[in-house]
## 1
Amino acid sequence: MIPALANADFDHLINVSAGYEDNLPRGLDDFHRRSSNFLNLDYSFGRSYLPGLNDIISVSAGLNAARYIDYSGLDNVGFSASALWQHKFGFGPYVPRLNFTLDFNYAEFNKEARDNGLLTSGIFFSKRLNDTWRFQEALSIRRATPRI
């Protein structure tokens, strides 16, 4: 028998940012370094479900756009989707947690050859040691998919 899932809030997040990124092409010397100011807009939404007292399932999706002021070809739009299952081994802030994650991100650039997708899966174990420190052990696998 499948237990009923308790719904948590439906979250919406809008983030607008501006900044400066140095060494965009990741060049090794000054001749190959290029830098630019950028504007970034992100919108994400998601929902969490509580299938039990110690478990959380979260699903989310998002849209984003980036505009680089000083160089063309780096502007992009994209979307993302993610899922998380977290299990806490007890109650309180100091109990260990085990997370399983699955994320997909896709970015479409002005130049078709730069379009790409990234699928990431991971397992994370964490334990809060005190108010300041947390121990975390992680294993993550990424698979890039150019031009889907």
## 2
Amino acid sequence: MVGLAALLGGCIKAAPGPIPEPGGDRGESPAPPLIVPRGYAVLGSGTPIFFDPRLGQPTARIRQLDARPDPWPSPGLAVRVVGEQDGTIAVSPILRDHDRHCESVLDGGVFDLVWFISPWSLVPVLNRNYEREFDDGTTISMLAGLPLRAADVPGRYAVANEDIRFEMELPEHVVGHNYESVVSMRGTVDSGLRFTPDMQMTFNGGTPIQVLAAPNLERGDVKIGWSSEDEGRHTVEFWSKCVGARVSSDRPPAHSRDTTGDATTGGDAPRRLSELASIGTRTERGSGAFGLSEPPEPPKPPRGRPPFHPVLEAGAPIYVPGIAEAVGVLRDARQFPESSFVSGERQCFTAELSRHFEPPLPLCFDVGEVYISTPESKPFDGGAVRVAPRSLEVPASLGEPEVAASLRRVRNEIRTCYGQALAAGVWSTAELTLELTVDGRGTVTAVEAAVDPRRLALECFEDAARGWTLPAPTDGRPAALTMKVELTIEPFRG
């Protein structure tokens, strides 16, 4: 399978200046944020997306996300940081089996893309886990990746995570624009305590901290671990996904069966908030956890529609409209129940990933990469017939990249032959070798096929190859080449 780095290695080019930079009233441009090109970052609503940083206009923007009122930071989408090139930041969606993040992730599923953004587009975040205990015994703990918003006072930041809101001073070295992976701070313990709307909570000798009360006190994203009282002073410890706090309160929380707040109740024994990260077991996504609406669901096909779905296998290059070069690769075989349209020699789909962008971003593939799953394919309907390149030997007169691209476009014919064998009951993975001879114009004039193990008929493969046209040899003379592919069944994903 073609690697993303190899496929896109030539696409990360210098940006001569079209990506916008913020400027002051005096025409000044501040220094760009300094980031280490690895880990993760957060993109906010409307972030311009450039698939070719040389272009003056973005291909798309991050869709509008639900905003929080001032002064709190608004939600964003977490992405991977994969590189840095001449003033631009290369980022990608987060793929399957992603780590937990404070913000919702821009989930790529099986679509591994790379695009470019201005460094000024990155949302300020906590770049590492940070915990501070104050002189009055209160404590604030935060996990890396938590979005921040600078307050009016230098060095002071507004913090919002789920239903927790507060401002505090942060040292300069913990504020940045990218971070390493994190785990959820929320533990499995539920003390049975609930916030009441009239609780007044503070830390650091009087700095207020808010917990937005849910209409139903039985629900809420913020969980209380324990509460205690000492000479009329109440202490409450609670946590959200990425913030933990041990604070002072003017009154105790209520028990879940008592919403009056008059009774003092206790929970589990106190423990250091830094320990909670190691027991995080819950990752929440959606509007309840992040104040962030999910992309709309793709339209469902009408009833009675026959299940004819286009299929693409792993390694297929991904294109977007207006960009000539591939911008990514498909990581796993995938059926496409979504509607599609044809643009030139490419078939384009609007998948789940597309809806993270405005306008929705079509994902396009060479027509030769696409084949159709039909009811006649029942013998192998549980997955894609995969034709995976293993090796390609070409002479100097034939350019290997050009020949490889041409052979990708004719793999459907190999796939058809393999599918016919599967439908006939010949269940076997195999390695197919084709020795091809082309004339001076690139037309295949001779074919010799071999397969291991010898359970598949070779006539279908040989007949298909005799109709191929490959790039013409540069010297105009006949040339020979050898290709090997692995034939397997790959389960559908994404």
## 3
Amino acid sequence: MGGSTRKDGELTARLGESLHRELFPKDYRVYYDHGPSDAECVGAIAAYWGDEKHRDTKLADLDIAIVDPKGRVILLIEIEESDDRPKTILGDAMAVLTADHIDFEGERLDGIGEWTALLIISKGSGEGHERRRRVIEERLEMIRAGVQPGRIRPGAVKVRLFEDEGDLRGIVGENLQLSE
């Protein structure tokens, strides 16, 4: 697989591994980037235009995708470990919202719909960061609810801030809707 552990993806790798250990016994699939390259659940989660992914159509890579036992993608997660710059957050969201498909290492993840949340988590704290987060999330929700050029239609776009690894796990847990 195409994963690799890099300094800038260490939190993502640990979170992906933790979610995989927790959810695999419940028949959920957790795909994530930035982990050990020999793990079958580690690799590139790519958003792209058109029906074939290649260099000219790829928009972005996501960090984590969680798929329920019915094949529905319930969470698409992008983690910005360094900062919460609006340009970065908006770029992350728009790459997914304008994409036609998302795949994991060549396997198309077609089960995206109203049950799916796109969760963008970025490093940041304080009143100014929180105010900016709220405005960005409100604007992204307007875009998501409007006409989208791509075929990806998540039911929600959420932007959250974290300060440390404990916050990160708590945010994902709060947004993880497990099906019965």
